[in-house]
Amino acid sequence: MHMTGHSSFAIDVPDALLARARAGDRAAFEQLYRWFERPVFTLALRIAGNREEAQDVLQETMLKVLGRIGEFRGDGSPFWGWLRQIAVNEALMRLRRDKRLAQEIGVDDPSEYAEDLAPLPPAAADAALLQRALATLPTATRSVLWLYHGEGYTHDEIAALMQRTPSFSKSQLARGTKKLRAVLQVPEAAHA
């Protein structure tokens, strides 16, 4: 998984398939489920941090999509963006419900994010390694990091999703990127 900001959700869904799903065609919805199962699960895993919860987020997201697909109008925005928004909201809602976000959110220190936005180390491309590294971060930090690097959300968008300020998003990103780099520093000697 290369964290380039290109979303794994970016799947072009044919209008005909959407129309069938909206009309209640089960086979069409199953097709959508198969296409989006992995991106939703991965997103949920990166935010929630464990597979069981990620599975719950996947199920809840898909149930919501099924129940609300009639509301999707397009209006120039892609279906995958609409579905991803539901997945992100679901994952973050669970964290809020568990009070995990509230406990960790401290006071913003603007000095922390002096444009410390260097790319993640190459080791981040290894999904398993990345998941272990992300698991070492606080929930809020991990969520911001993944939404920014993995999904390409802007700080303004992340702030709206997490009900915080853009400066909160920037400070969490700087903190998380720094920690992740430290965790992912694979010493050269290790390969010898």
Automatic annotation (TrEMBL):
Residue ranges constituting the RNA polymerase sigma-70 region domain according to the UniProt record: 32-100
Organism of origin: Noviluteimonas caseinilytica
Keyword check for Transcription regulation: yes
Family to which this protein belongs: Belongs to the sigma-70 factor family. ECF subfamily.
Top-level lineage group: Bacteria
Keyword Transcription regulation: yes
Protein name (database record): RNA polymerase sigma factor
Membrane-crossing residue ranges in chain numbering: none
Key words of the record: Sigma factor, Transcription, Transcription regulation
Domain RNA polymerase sigma factor 70 region 4 type: 129-180
Alphabetized InterPro entries for the sequence: RNA_pol_sigma-70-like (IPR039425), RNA_pol_sigma-70_dom (IPR014284), RNA_pol_sigma70_r2 (IPR007627), RNA_pol_sigma70_r4_t2 (IPR013249), RNA_pol_sigma_r2 (IPR013325), RNA_pol_sigma_r3/r4-like (IPR013324), WH-like_DNA-bd_sf (IPR036388)
